[in-house]
Specification:
The chain is α+β, with helices and mostly antiparallel strands. It is 28% helix and 18% strand. Bound molecules: adenosine monophosphate and zinc ion. The site of adenosine monophosphate (AMP) has 12 residues, from loops.
Length: 139
């Protein structure tokens, strides 16, 4: 399904032009207009899903191989030294466009740094056990 009010639905389905890197019947891959690094791309499903929790299996089974294909092409084509796959779910996680998307962010040895990084917090073993149970019990 497509959401008429969603900008990524419009881009993915060609109603709004974009710098397109790849396209097939399910996905469009575009360049991010506010890139973290040179060549930062976004993988957009052509159907509307708010986030990964709602993403159908038809799309989820293909997204990781596609992300790998894009990242490997960036290594060859852009000469980047690595890449991050980043996927935000929910405002608290930094999601600003509520149409599922995966970021493919080229990384260069000479920077910029501090992308998709965090300060490790401390956690004791007992707390980790409790947290693991809380997640397992919610499957
Ligand atoms: P997120 O914070 O994970 O929701 O990422 C949304 C991303 O979409 C940001 O990196 C924006 O720069 C990017 N973005 C938003 N609107 C557009 C657009 N019209 N074309 C290309 N990228 C966009
Ligand atoms: Zn959408």
């Amino acid at each position: 399904m497509i959401d008429e009010n969603c900008i990524f639905c419009k881009i993915a389905n060609g109603q709004i032009p974009s710098a397109t890197v790849y396209e097939d019947e399910k996905f469009k891959v575009i360049l991010d207009m506010g890139p973290a690094t040179r060549g930062h791309a976004l993988i957009l499903p052509k159907e509307h899903f708010q986030d990964v929790c709602g993403l159908s299996e038809t799309y989820s089974k293909d997204i990781l191989p596609l992300a790998a294909k894009i990242g490997c092409a960036m290594m060859k084509g852009l000469g980047c030294d690595g890449f991050n796959l980043v996927q935000n779910n929910g405002e608290a996680a930094g999601q600003t466009v509520m149409h599922f998307h995966m970021h493919v962010i080229p990384r260069y040895a000479d920077g910029p740094r501090n992308i998709a990084s965090w300060e490790p917090q401390s956690a004791d073993g007992e707390e980790l056990k409790v947290l693991a149970e809380q997640i397992k019990n919610a499957f």
